[in-house]
Amino acid sequence: MNQRTFVAASATALLATMLLATTAQAQAPAKEKCYGIAAAGQNDCANLSGSHSCAGQSKVNMGADEWKYVAKGECKNMKGMTAEEAKMKKKM
């Protein structure tokens, strides 16, 4: 294989890889944190109060400071809260 063919094949492979990666990213749905909807042990990560730092450690159902990732725009449909709303509720 001569150098010109090798460079052309490499460039084609690189472009194909970049196209596939871009397509996969474009298809990934946008997510948002939704507070107050996680069942006990079903939270996605650390809570607002800092009483734990990882997924699955929630002790209560629908705790205002516990969150899960949901599709963007679905949180309100699930009667959930944004981070700001959850912080305000926590202060009360």
Explain this structure.
This protein has helices at 3-27, 83-91, and strands at 31-35, 67-71. The radius of gyration is 22 Å and the shape is elongated. The protein starts with a helix and ends with a helix. The chain is α+β, with helices and mostly antiparallel strands and 92 residues long. It has a domain at 29-91. The mean pLDDT is 84.
For this entry, give a set of tags.
92 residues, 11% strand, elongated, alpha+beta, two-stranded antiparallel ribbon
Shape: elongated
Helices, by number, come to: 2
SSE-based structural type: alpha+beta
Major β-sheet strand ordering: 1-2
Mean pLDDT: 84
Strands, total number: 2
Q: Give the distance, in angstroms, between the N- and C-terminal Cα atoms.
A: 73 Å
Strand content: 5-15%
Q: How large, in whole angstroms, is the Cα Rg?
A: 22 Å
User: Can you tell me the residue ranges where pLDDT is under 50 for at least 5 consecutive residues?
Assistant: none
Which series of helices and strands comes N to C?
HEEH
Percent of residues in helices: 25-40%
Largest sheet: 2 strands, antiparallel
